[in-house]
Design brief:
Elements: H1 2-48, H2 52-55, E1 62-63, E2 65-66, E3 71-72, E4 90-91, H3 102-107, E5 117-120, E6 124-134, E7 139-148, E8 151-164, E9 171-173, E10 188-190, E11 196-197, E12 203-204, E13 218-219, H4 226-232, H5 237-240, E14 251-252, E15 267-268, E16 271-272, E17 276-279, E18 287-291, E19 293-296, E20 301-305, E21 311-315, E22 324-327, E23 332-336, E24 348-351, E25 357-362, E26 365-382, E27 393-406, H6 425-428, E28 437-439, E29 459-472
Parallel strand pairs: 9-12, 9-27, 10-27, 11-28, 12-14, 15-18, 16-19, 17-20, 18-21, 19-22, 20-23, 21-24, 22-25, 23-26, 24-26, 25-26, 26-27, 27-28
Antiparallel strand pairs: 1-4, 1-6, 2-3, 5-6, 6-7, 7-8, 8-29, 13-14
Length: 473
């Protein structure tokens, strides 16, 4: 009897083991099926993002709420459960449609048409839960969740994301009101034969305010239409005294309206009117400074050391043309590094958000800086180059301004129609034969984070998969 009892126990154990194996095999099969759906959903999502009208989403963030945690799935670092997840969803995708803006209409890309959900088979579904873009590291992290018969699995991948920067907006002349009936002729470039150096020295101007409003396309150096576009930016030989084509980039007769959001300001240092040094304190977040005005002359220099990190300078008071930046004689604003690496244009950002004019005289220089002055202009009244390095420049950087206005070559040359005012100093000052101007750097990757704030039709492309991870939810 004892032997029989043992045999019964062994039989029951064998049956239980077999049943357990069948359940485990079923669970593995179901989990494998949901994983396959997640991978298929990921493939479909990436396929959608190859289309130009959807690729514009690759530099924007989308991060929904995880019902299990009550916070976003990823957070800014693109990682699960790292502690930076927020309590509010981030959605820069839904409703974003730049297709009606002028420069997008040149491309003819159309509206984004991106499906965040889909189905596979009779019971399988997938949903895009999160996407985070890291502009400093040029990578995007995408999370897709899939479900089949109650089983849920997710796939997280990190991909290399690279914008095509050939037509980068190195010089933007902003028409800030957006009102076609305004009497203010903003968005003007009056170059008058001064140089714009660099292949990224592409100019985007407001065609209706130009010297030839009939032009609405673009022109590269050497194009048959080039002389017409140079005339539109007050740089013709006969009317403005220009000695040939001095612009190395393309000219785009379409309006861009950058809108960089305001934010936290740093300590107010008042009026900078003598030698001063600002220093970046470290990390990828800019060290913040405020000034009421930068007013330098002689050999006075505002030196900005970005060796350890970027710097942002905000013009504080504004509201009058007397504020902003005035540089005379050999005065300079210089972005430098002391570690042997070249200074990056995006590591010094100077923002003037009201009527904050930038005026350069004599041999003044602003070097390695990004200037955002959407409501006032840069006046180039210099008489010769002044930037260190020996180039024919007074500004080296990226400029998003309301206008850029140069002094005349000769008193008899044509005036500039800008804001309806007569006898402005850019029309009464004559600096015959002066060509010193602007150089846009070749490396503009330090400004990629700002492209989401300007309606420029950036074509983003993604490359190899940097990381793949299965996520059990």
């Amino acid at each position: 009897m004892g032997l029989g009892f043992v045999m019964v126990i062994l039989g029951m154990s064998t049956m239980m083991i077999a049943q357990s194996d069948r359940i485990s095999a079923f669970n593995r099969k179901e989990a494998g099926a949901s994983l396959a759906i997640a991978e298929g959903g990921m493939a479909r999502t990436l396929a959608q993002l190859t289309a130009p009208n959807n690729a514009v989403l690759l530099n924007r963030n989308y991060d929904t709420i995880n019902p299990k945690t009550g916070k976003t799935y990823l957070g800014p670092d693109g990682m699960f459960n790292s502690g930076d997840e927020g309590a509010s969803a981030i959605d820069e995708w839904t409703g974003y449609d730049p297709s009606s803006t002028p420069c997008y209409q040149h491309k003819g890309w159309g509206s984004p048409n991106f499906a965040k959900t889909g189905s596979m088979g009779e019971t399988g579904t997938y949903t895009v839960r999160a996407y985070r873009f890291n502009p400093q590291e040029l990578k995007g992290t995408l999370f897709v969740e899939a479900s089949k018969d109650g089983r849920t699995t997710g796939v997280l991948i990190t991909i290399a994301v690279q914008p095509d920067l050939d037509d980068f907006p190195g010089i933007v002349l902003n028409e800030p009101t957006g009102d076609p009936n305004t009497t203010f002729a903003t968005g003007v470039l009056a170059l008058r034969g001064r140089e714009i150096q660099g292949s990224k020295g592409n100019v985007y101007y407001h065609p209706s305010s130009s010297a030839d409003p009939s032009l609405t396309a673009s022109s590269a150096p050497g194009d048959a239409s080039r002389s017409n576009y140079l005339n539109a930016i007050w740089s013709s030989p006969s009317e403005d005294g220009a000695n040939g084509d001095t612009v190395q980039g393309s000219l785009f007769a379409c309006t861009l309206r950058p809108r960089i959001p305001d934010g936290i300001k740093g300590t107010n240092f008042g009026i900078i009117d003598s030698d001063t040094t600002f220093t970046g304190l470290g990390g990828t977040t800019p060290t913040l400074y405020q000034v009421e005005k930068i007013d330098l002359d002689g050999n006075e220099t505002l030196t900005v050391d970005t060796t350890n990190g970027p710097v942002q300078i905000d013009i504080k008071n504004g509201g009058s043309h007397e504020h902003g930046i005035i540089l005379l004689q050999n005065a300079k604003i210089l972005n430098i590094r002391t570690d042997g690496q070249p200074a990056r244009v995006g590591d010094l950002r100077i923002f003037g958000r009201k009527d904050d004019r930038v005026t350069l005289y004599d041999q003044a220089c602003i070097q390695n800086a990004f200037l955002y002055f959407p409501y006032d202009e840069l006046r180039l009244l210099t008489t010769e180059p002044g930037c260190p390095g020996g180039r024919n420049t007074n500004v080296e950087g990226v400029l998003w301004m309301e206008a850029i206005l140069s002094s005349k070559n000769e008193a008899t040359h044509r005036d500039v129609e800008y804001l309806g005012f007569d006898n402005e100093d850019y029309d009464t000052t004559t600096t015959s034969g002066v060509t010193s101007g602007i150089a846009v750097p070749e490396d503009v990757t330090s400004l990629i984070d700002l492209l989401k704030y300007i309606d420029w039709p950036a074509r983003y492309r993604f490359g190899g998969v940097l990381q793949w991870q299965r996520v059990r939810l």
